[in-house]
Predict the 3D structure of the following.
Amino acid sequence: MSEQADVVVIGGGVFGLGIAWELARRRRRRIVVLERRFTGFGATGRNIGRVRTSQFTLELATFAKAAFAKHLRLADELGANTLFWRPGYALVFYDEDELAQIDAVCAMLRGLNLEPEFHRGAAAVDRLPILAGGERPVGCLIRPDGVVHHDALLYAYRRAISALGVTLCEQREVRSIVRNGGRVAGVETDAGTIAAPIVVNATGGWSREISAMAGVAVPNVPLRREVIVTDAWRPLMDTMITFYRPVEGWFHQTLRGEVVIGVVDPEEPQGLEHAATPEHAFRVARYALSKAPRLGHLRAVRQWAGVYDMTPDRKPMVGPVDAAPGFVQANGDNGRGIALIPYLAEQLATWLDTGTRPASLEHFDANRYAGREDTPVVVGDYYAAYRKAAPEAAGTR
């Protein structure tokens, strides 16, 4: 069987559905979205939905500010409630050495009119009483950031693309990418060929595999992250919390009263692995409860794992690929997918529609690793890639 389309999008998560919707609402196109399992099978259905502007570099903070504004208007654009709300987001620090960098980050955020709260010592616990009785923080940075429900967002996009005539094919696997004279000409699937002059790679943790089908080498690697969810309880906190030392972890309470908790394994091997582990439960008990002992009475009711699609510089890979005309990257979100994707999709659609790259995507060029595709992704410390960039960037404001 052979089909014809104007655009084929590989990946049925929020990025794939988001770019399909943004393209379809601009002008009439034949758009096909291919998902080899079901929509939301990958990172979209395996995340905690935080939407934060508290980034560590100028380019990411600038983009995150615009992405946050996109979330604020997205429910109206899609005509559906995405369950986006604003409990606030706190970065909590336990090492004095971190504060010098955070001073620079605060200055950068103020330069973007993103005024952060900053509290030191005992004032941090007064502001975040869930931390009372735990390890004493040296400070915290807080922004009135938000969280979106991943399923609500996904199905708002799914309904919207259906209304615009986009074809969504679940349980359909891409086996190869067709090229003709150096250009991408479509995809070969387990149900036949779809000819198309544009193929978008929105596959998250599988992005390297799909890129290779187009003859494109990229440094992207998948990295597993795990989450535990507790039973629902009366309000325990009104702010999402992330800490970095001695290892990275996070927790917040959902609209239903559940507490979502994760603590990173600094030795986590690279690879596409969705199996949850008992070791994660022990890390949560050791590290999260050392920060917030009041969480100790809660009962864990479910656990899952997903992957970040990581790049060496922790920035997305977005836009057409020079080495394979017609092939477009929409991946490499480094754990910020839900936060950034709606605006990334909007800006990428503008680029594909007009042929001109928006200035907002300049730092996310999909060709920036051409010739150095073997650049390693260092994952032992997620934030190590930012330590030199943040103070330098802040000084430019």
